[in-house]
Write a structure and sequence with these properties.
methylenetetrahydrofolate dehydrogenase (NADP+) activity; 64 residues; methenyltetrahydrofolate cyclohydrolase activity; alpha+beta; single chain; 4 strands
Length: 64
């Protein structure tokens, strides 16, 4: 959809050995209003959420 925000959470290796997402970046950059890059997009957020979940899991274990 034109003007959409596209959040690419996929990570793959293309035929040339480069990291890429699931979204065709070249096509979407002409349509989407905002597009997260791969690599360099949501990786830090994913890591932060995972760390938060690990801390919470530990806290729940300690409460038992």
């Amino acid at each position: 959809k034109e003007g959409a925000t596209v959040i690419d959470v996929g990570i793959n290796v293309d035929e040339e050995g480069n990291l890429c997402g699931d979204v065709d970046f070249d096509t979407m950059k002409t349509v989407a209003d905002k597009l997260t890059p791969v690599p360099g997009g949501l990786g830090l957020v994913t890591t932060a959420v995972l760390a938060q979940h690990l801390v919470r899991a530990y806290q729940l274990l300690e409460e038992k």
